[in-house]
Design brief:
Layout lengths: L4 H28 L19 E10 L2 E6 L2 E7 L2 E2 L13 H13 L5 E5 L11 E6 L9 H7 L1 H8 L3 E2 L9 H13 L1
Parallel strand pairs: 3-6
Antiparallel strand pairs: 1-2, 1-5, 2-3, 4-7, 5-6
């Protein structure tokens, strides 16, 4: 017995719907279980993470700080995140979310606090700022997603403010983890 065109179309639609449900379920599962060994394999080890100690000096913006490093003040732009504008902007561009990101960053650090900078491929942006990941500890598991969420300030800013994950080539070492945090924020 041959199936009619309409019946064949129904079967194709059902198969497509089942496939979509499966893929969405898998995506939700991987977002909620971010330490899955299949998903968190990186091409580096903790030994390959090189940190530069610095002392926090002040906050410029939610995603920009000034540190003292090698007896010089250095402006650091956080890699992987983009906070709404809060300073040096017109009234229309400054937002409450930007001010909240600034206050979070400014309130998190203490003057002179030791932080650890990790650099990626690109050292400076077009504004001359030094690009870095800011670590709060130099003794965590750098290739562990849970430690990343806990000890990487860029990730903390993303988790606790209306900051969003943002990739600027070529600095993408933790890009997947920033994107995962961004997706998790939007689920809840």
């Amino acid at each position: 017995m041959a199936l009619s065109k309409g019946r064949k179309a129904q079967i194709r639609n059902i198969i497509a719907a089942v496939l979509v449900v499966f893929l969405l379920g898998y995506k939700i599962y991987t977002d909620l279980n971010p330490t899955s060994p299949v998903l968190d394999i990186f091409s580096y080890t903790d030994d390959e993470v090189v940190l530069q100690a610095a002392a926090y000096k002040r906050t410029v913006d939610g995603d920009t700080i000034v540190v003292t490093m090698n007896a010089q003040d250095v402006t650091i732009r956080l890699i992987g995140v983009d906070a709404p504008e809060s300073t040096s902007c017109s009234i229309q561009e400054c937002t409450d979310a930007g001010k909240a990101a600034y206050e979070y960053t400014n309130g998190y650090f203490k003057l002179g606090q030791t932080i650890y900078l990790e650099f990626d491929r690109g050292q400076n942006d077009k504004y001359g700022r030094t690009l870095a990941y800011v670590w709060l500890s130099n003794s965590c598991k750098f290739n562990d997603f849970n430690d990343f969420k806990k000890y990487n300030f860029n990730a903390l800013l993303l988790q606790n403010t209306e900051t969003r994950a943002k990739y600027y080539s070529p600095n993408g070492k933790y890009r997947k983890w920033f994107n995962r945090i961004d997706r998790l924020k939007n689920i809840y």
